[in-house]
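Query form — protein 8-oxo-dGTP diphosphatase

QUESTION: What is the three-dimensional structure of this chain?
INPUT:
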Amino acid sequence: MGEAGIPTTKVVCGIIERDGYVLLTQRSKNMSQPLLWEFPGGKLEAGESEAECLEREILEELNISILPLQRLTPVLHKYPDFIIELIPYTCSYQGGTVCLMEHTSYEWVPLQDLKDYEWCPADVPVVEEYLQLGG
Ligand SMILES: Nc1nc2c([nH]c(=O)n2[C@H]2C[C@H](O)[C@@H](COP(=O)(O)OP(=O)(O)OP(=O)(O)O)O2)c(=O)[nH]1
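ANSWER: The structure tokens for 8-oxo-dGTP diphosphatase are given below.
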């Protein structure tokens, strides 16, 4: 539980790298955080590790396989009705063709363009840390 009894939701997201590009997904207009950009991932389920969660969510949502590499700094962000702990991992792309199951669009983006997207608010510090690390 977080502040004033608001639960904290753990969400694991992947910064999926392939040949100098990173995979971004845009949330659909009927999802929470509509039309904002994010690193794909999802809510941690009971009994699974963060890496298992990431591999499962990305296969379910995008139909590609990935390998989690490095855990970056988790971000605690307060949305109006819940608190999210966003746990980012850099990942390598392993295989498969992107097929969108939930998102409205995706892009493979070069590092220098990451700042140009309208991000979910919780992702802003993640993008900053990732760029500081040199991608
Ligand atoms: N997957 C992902 N979610 C993010 C990121 N940044 C961020 O604020 N979020 C938020 C959006 C959602 O509220 C939540 C992730 O849950 P989800 O992807 O399972 O979304 P959902 O639509 O099923 O959630 P909900 O509306 O049912 O609550 O975390 C991010 O980079 N990746």
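ADDITIONAL NOTE: The pocket of 8-OXO-2'-deoxyguanosine-5'-triphosphate is lined by residues 11, 13, 31-33, 38-43, 84, 86, 120, 122-123 (CB under 6 Å).
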